[in-house]
Design a protein that fits this description.
HAD_2, six-stranded parallel beta sheet, 6 strands, phosphoglycolate phosphatase activity, HAD_sf, about 220 residues, 2 domains, Haloacid dehalogenase
């Protein structure tokens, strides 16, 4: 049975905060709505797009949420050619991913609130596509913190949640991991603070990407 390490994308693999804030701000403005503040936008990163927009403005009805989501997607697509600049990999990410994939007993995946099109663009831009054996996005099922993406990814790889680690930077990731019965490894370089990650169920915290392979294996081997 493989050991699975499932990564969030935004705020974990790539630092896309500036692009997300700019894109969300423009999407709201295009529809004549007051743009949400930066802190509010950072707090919803990781959720599916409709869920995120609904939380940013609870007064929007379903039709309005859909229109803002469409405006966001259009703006994002227009910026896609600049992903290497606007959504760079975090330092040490590639080396850590390669260290994990070099092990015969470990398989990697991504579980993200991004659309599949958005995730594919990120992975292709940074040459990461071949490192991941399973991808689960907002297109596949319920938004984080629902455990669906983790459970479905594990099933697709023939694994078990008891041998799965979720690596993420937000409380949404940690809550999803624990709800699925997987280990929760929080990273401190993303968009939610250490206390928020711990309160949401993070069992260990990594302060740099080089720590992730070691901490993930300690969790899987029962050493933490």
């Amino acid at each position: 049975m493989p050991k699975l390490v499932l990564f969030d994308c935004d705020g974990t693999l790539v630092d896309s905060q500036h692009m997300i804030v700019a894109t969300m701000t423009e999407a709201f403005a295009k529809l004549g709505h007051a743009p949400p503040g930066r802190d509010g936008i950072l707090s919803i990163i990781g959720l599916s797009l409709p869920e995120a927009i609904g939380r940013l403005n609870a007064n929007l009805d379903a039709i309005s949420v859909g229109l803002v989501a469409d405006a966001y997607r259009d703006t994002y697509q227009a910026m896609k050619f600049r992903l290497a600049e606007t959504a760079p990999l975090y330092p040490g990410a590639l080396d850590a991913l390669k260290a994990l994939t070099s092990r015969d007993d470990v398989v990697l995946g991504v579980v993200t609130g991004k659309s599949r099109r958005g995730l594919d663009a990120i992975l292709e831009t940074h040459g990461l596509t071949s490192l991941f054996s399973v991808l689960r996005t907002a297109d596949d099922g319920p938004s984080k913190p629902h455990p669906f993406m983790v459970v479905d990814a594990v099933a697709a790889l023939g694994g078990h949640v008891s041998q799965t680690v979720v690596v993420g930077d937000t409380s949404h990731d940690m809550l999803m991991a624990r709800a699925a019965g997987a280990f929760a490894l929080g990273v401190s370089w993303g968009y939610h603070g250490r206390d928020e990650l711990t309160q949401a169920g993070a069992q260990v915290l990594a302060d740099n990407f080089g720590d992730v392979p070691v901490l993930a294996m300690k969790l899987l081997d029962g050493e933490v």
